[in-house]
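Morning!

As promised:
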Amino acid sequence: MTTQPQSSPVSGAGENSPGEQPQAKASAGGAGQGKRAMAGRPQASGSLWWLSLLSVTGFLVFWYAIVRFEIISQALLASPEQVLATFISKLTNRAPDGATLGANFRTSLKLCLTGYISAVCVGVPLGLVMGWFRKVDEIVKPLFEMIRPIPPIAWIPLAILWLGIGLPAKAFIIWLSAFVPSVINSYAGIKLTEPVLISVSRTFGATNWETFLKVGAPSALPMVFTGLRLSLSSAWMTLVAAELLAGSEGLGYMIQMGRTLARPDVIIVGMLTIGATGAAMGFVLEKFERRLTPWRRS
Amino acid sequence: MRSRETAVGSLILLLSLIGSILVAGAGCSKSSPAPAKEMVIAVSHQPCVHALPTYMAMTKGWDKAEGFKIEYQFYASGPPQNEALASNKWEVGAEGAVPGMLAAIRYGAYIIAISNDESETNDLWVRPNSPILKAKGVNPKYPDIYGSAETVKGKTILLTTASTGHYAVIATLKALGLGEQDVKLVHMEQSQAMAAFEAGQGDIVQLWAPFDYIGESKGWKKMSSGKRAGVVVPGVVIASKKAFEENPEKVAKWLKLYMRGIGEMKANPGDSAKLLNAYYKEHGLTLDDKALAQEFSLRPIFDTKQQLALFAKPGGAPSQVEKWMSDLADFFVQQGRITPAEKEKLMKGNFINDKILKML
């Protein structure tokens, strides 16, 4: 029995004709599309590095000026040099939240990776299988569609009841936020498998399972990676909410303490650390994607 | 050509960003809570008994009779209340001692009165079958504290850190001859701590009113409190720096109504409890009659004469309120939450001030 990729997708992704872009791809996969569009342009980034430098420098000067000239009160926004001083101090100093920046970072990284990796380990295979096998899609889709719109933070009371107040409960909150994009993009990716490739595979006698493994799944990789990047962003974005649940260290906890103690500098150090870590991990993921999907370079 | 377009595009983007932040900044720094015509005072409160005098004044129309209008603002807790203070959104209000202290240190706000003594309602709770309940008054100096060093050591305490509750927890541990390193402290917000404790997590939970009344109704047993551990946790009445320094008459006018409310609460606790019930219901809280009565029996309030005595500095010595706040600030310094210089600023900056009380 042969099962074609179905046209009853999660989030409307597959209710399009083969020529249409599914919704998930248009929104969630925006980064991937942009990349393809950029691939067609002359590569002028080498000569435009100064623009990035200009924007960052301009932003820092502007930030400094609005605080220095009290356009925004220092009570509301810490100055760049104050944030830098707090960053340096937090490398060795536990005050005011009770842990050094390194300890907070390690705690959050462990939490984020636990939630993220477990989410993509479940989400990617599930999305691929849902996109390829109609019966699985029909079974899982209604449940997934019900769970998908629920904000991860709404699960906190249940997470406490089910999983307690340790790492599993917090990782579960992150898992929920990272799970959805990985399912949707994997689903949409495999739905977009070229029918010609599927036909060729079958002509050569491949079973449906073999076609799924050797044609469908590899062809979905670009969208899968888009999902992985989106999941990673979601995981970091949910960190603060997850660390609200319970804890005594972590970047989210540090931000919360910064709020409690009215320390905008501590809040900004926490935010920038999360931002920089998320960006670095996104960069690594992109490099990994390039290695695994060399055909995308062209 | 394309480079130039990109450069122009980037500059436009940067300018747009600058413009947006300027607009937002102007909005934050220059917003004024008071409309021009009528004399309006922006008052901030939380879902707490210390909001009752203001609520009473509004309900009974005392503010209008005095020729001004209260613009009431509700905040779920101290941090957002202080953020609004930093944005100059309110002029007077009541909050806990910790946000009050931070409001003075960070935003130059003044502590102008004491809303109530919350020492007994910043408390620690255990389940009825807890071994901690087997011993009481092990340290004769603190006869009402349950537990001993042996039964409490190694236990997990769910608490809201950097709060007056945390202060009560550390004082309790100290009374039992223990330190923070002897137990496992897990930070949680109050409602989540309650849910987690109910689900079997932790051995001790720190609560404050009205959550502790809910805990009691579930059968949990009070193990200790700030009062039992010998520390005083005052609730404070705050005036923003701007209101205090530029319009003390207006602040005094409101404080007069607030003190009138306190007088009413002292004179008629039964009727006041009904009004408190209405206030809580408006904000989604339901307390039974026993809990409402405890709001009055467990939380002493002070009339103007008593307030003046608490703020008095006999022979230039620190006032009672200054001593309370100094002890709290010391705790925060020990915890590394504020610096010694910030404590110094609080104590020497005249932020604990009876000027308005004296105007009544």
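The interface with chain A takes residues 2-3, 6-7, 10, 13-14, 17-18, 21-22, 25-26, 28-29, 78-79, 82-83, 86-87, 102-103, 106-107, 158, 161-163, 185-189, 192, 195-196, 199, 201-202, 335-339 of chain B (CB under 8 Å).

Hope this helps with the figure draft.
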